[in-house]
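Entry 14. Ran structure prediction on the chain below.
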Amino acid sequence: MASDDLKKQLHFYIDMIDDETQLEMLNEAAETYATQKIDILDALSPDQLIRLEESIKQADESKLSPHEEVMKLSKQWLTK
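Output, structure tokens:
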């Protein structure tokens, strides 16, 4: 995908986010990447890298949960 198309897609997704905390987290990640040119993977702990690898494996095996289901579960977890 061309850079201009990627930027448009990112703007589209950002415009969909209403939660200020999520926007702040995204802004912080984008700022860190844009200003320091670090690989975000370098900032992950060994445990986080293992969990990320497991998640990628699950995605490769199509063992995914729909977004709506995850959001519903997260709301339940946050109220406990």
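The mean pLDDT is 89. Will compare against last week's run tomorrow.
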